[in-house]
Design brief:
alpha/beta; seven-stranded mixed sheet; 37% helix; 20% strand
Length: 203
């Protein structure tokens, strides 16, 4: 079994903000797979389905970003899922808007949601799909930036990123982290755009 988590903040005030791209990508994946997030437990909402013959749980922590680990650790313990079968999708200010970076492990890089996960899981060795939201303007507070909304032009770019980010998470399960990195990181994502549609059903 695999667990795929999208990070974000619950509540209408935070919908579709930069910090919630994990939620938006998970919603896209759930829609494409026909999975409904209708179970509420472990301080999160989740739903179950299949990806490439593998059982999968899609989850949104409802703890607010900084305490994401409070949801994920009990969920993993209950279903006996090891860190290498846990995939997290989240926003990254170090990447241009819409860019995707798949990694098999790594530090938090200043992201409070990932800090919480590392703290609660006791390891940083879990796959992640990072989705770029762009660097904040120099004169702007970081919190105000990540809790702000994309402009109309950037929203179109992000919609493609949600689609490809969902594909990338599935590719980690079906092909492994290394092949997912080769298919979705940087220029490889554009070169493989036609092939990248094979991991989840067409809309």
């Amino acid at each position: 079994m695999y667990i795929i988590a999208g990070l974000g903040n619950p509540g209408r005030d935070y919908e579709h903000t930069r910090h919630n791209v994990g939620f938006d990508t998970l919603d896209r994946l759930a829609d494409r797979l026909g999975i409904t997030l209708n179970e509420s437990k472990f301080k999160g909402i989740f739903g179950k389905g299949m990806i490439g013959g593998e059982k999968v749980i899609l989850v949104k922590p409802l703890t607010y970003m900084n305490n994401s680990g409070e949801c994920i650790r009990p969920l993993m313990d209950y279903y006996k899922v090891e860190p290498d079968h846990f995939i997290v999708i989240y926003d990254d200010i170090s990447l241009d808007p819409g860019m995707i970076r798949v990694r098999g492990k790594g530090s938090a890089g200043g992201h409070n949601g990932i800090k919480s996960l590392i703290q609660h899981l006791g390891t940083q060795d879990f796959p992640r799909v990072r989705i770029g939201i762009g660097a904040k303007p120099s004169q702007m507070d970081l919190a105000d930036y990540v809790l702000g909304h994309f402009d109309q032009v950037t929203r179109k770019v992000m919609e493609e990123a949600y689609r490809d980010g969902a594909e990338a998470a599935c590719a980690v399960i079906q092909e492994g982290v290394q092949k997912a990195m080769s298919g979705f990181n940087g220029a490889a994502r554009k070169n493989n755009s036609e092939k990248n549609g094979k991991h989840i059903p067409k809309e």
